[in-house]
Write a structure and sequence with these properties.
It is a single chain. The chain has about 325 residues and is mainly beta. Strand 7 and strand 8 form a beta hairpin. Strands 1-25-24-23-22 form a 5-stranded mixed beta sheet, with no helix packed on it. Strands 2-28-27-26 form a 4-stranded antiparallel beta sheet, with no helix packed on it.
């Protein structure tokens, strides 16, 4: 009788867990037989945070602790570079973006740099007192760029950074952000700093529109798929897809491919339409059927790193798309698909 009474709480817990999981889509994850990724490990243990290419061969990678690296062979090898900034200023270089020979680089705290010669020389620009810290930069045209900050403010320059014009009427209502993405058409989406709601900003609009999150789970990150629909990653390793591009509050049921205690941090679509999701402790999974089933990547699972950013680059200057997954502690993956 005593053993039976002790087992009752365990039985209740098991039943509760089953009920929770039945509200999600969890199909299990098998290990893929092969991987389209190649591991690159840098001697520098800084975290890579962004990468972009000028043409098929020439690209730059930036990250924490002033990390900036240059590749001239399509990303197969990288050499460390330096910027003309005081040694005592320890910047996190967050984002780099090129269009032709012109490029922009931003970092925290309050760093914006500009180049017009493919990164041979960089000019540091004065920002003044903008709300928040630089978070995302986008090269629009010659001398034209948009800068987004951690307070969800959006600024645009049309004179190579000499002056900046505010593009958002009142970003203060956002209360700060933890994630922010932009499409090539100029639409933005952001996640509040606490992950309790997300907001959209349409191209041509000057007002952010706040939206409720899809569940009680806090939002980890959010972004656009190649068709312009939204995806959402929430705590508890939940994946959701927006089902109607005209209704950003209509979401699929949560998909939970792996329950290993680690959240997913980013998603990306490769040129073949496969969906990749990466996260903590070497977690990298792929779906080849629009999220119905998932496989784990065999190369990534052996690496002692957290995958924080998935990037597939497709631009006019590239003959074919490039793909990179940026990890912590000096690890990145290069796509050879």
């Amino acid at each position: 009788m005593k053993n039976f009474l002790i087992s009752i709480p365990n039985l209740i817990l098991s039943l509760t867990l089953c009920l929770v999981l039945t509200s999600c889509s969890s199909n299990g994850v098998k290990m893929s037989e092969s991987s389209p990724w190649e591991t690159i490990q840098f001697e520098d243990q800084s975290n890579a945070l962004d990468v972009d290419f000028i043409d098929n061969n020439h690209g730059f990678l930036v990250g924490s602790n002033r990390l900036i690296m240059e590749s001239k062979d399509g990303g197969r090898s990288w050499e460390k570079r330096s910027l003309d900034i005081p040694a005592e200023e320890n910047f996190r270089l967050l984002d780099i973006d090129f269009k032709g020979s012109e490029g922009w680089l931003i970092g925290q705290p309050s760093l914006v740099m500009h180049t017009i010669d493919e990164g041979k020389n960089w000019t540091r620009l004065s920002l003044g007192k903008l709300p928040g810290q630089p978070f995302l930069v986008s090269t629009i045209n010659e001398g034209v760029a948009q800068l987004a900050t951690t307070s969800a403010a959006i600024y645009e320059t049309s004179n190579s950074g000499e002056t900046w014009e505010a593009k958002v009427s009142d970003p203060s209502e956002q209360g700060g952000i933890r994630d922010l993405r932009r499409t090539s058409k100029g639409d933005y989406v952001s996640v509040s700093s606490l992950g309790n709601f997300f907001s959209t900003l349409d191209s041509g609009s000057d007002t952010w529109i706040a939206h409720q999150r899809a569940s009680s789970k806090r939002v980890q990150s959010i972004g656009f798929n190649p068709s312009g629909n939204l995806w959402m990653l929430s705590r508890g390793a939940e994946i959701r897809f927006n089902e109607d591009i005209n209704d950003v509050e209509k979401w699929s049921k949560p998909i939970v491919p792996i329950l290993n205690g680690y959240n997913y941090l980013d998603m990306g679509w490769d040129p073949d339409g496969n969906i990749w999701a990466g996260g903590g402790n070497g977690t990298l999974i792929v779906s080849k059927d629009d999220g119905k089933t998932w496989n784990s990547d065999p190369i990534a699972s052996d690496l002692p790193t957290n995958f924080i950013k998935i990037q597939f680059l497709a631009k006019d200057e590239l003959d074919s798309p490039k793909g990179f997954i940026l990890g912590e502690r000096g690890y990145i993956l290069k796509w050879n698909g």
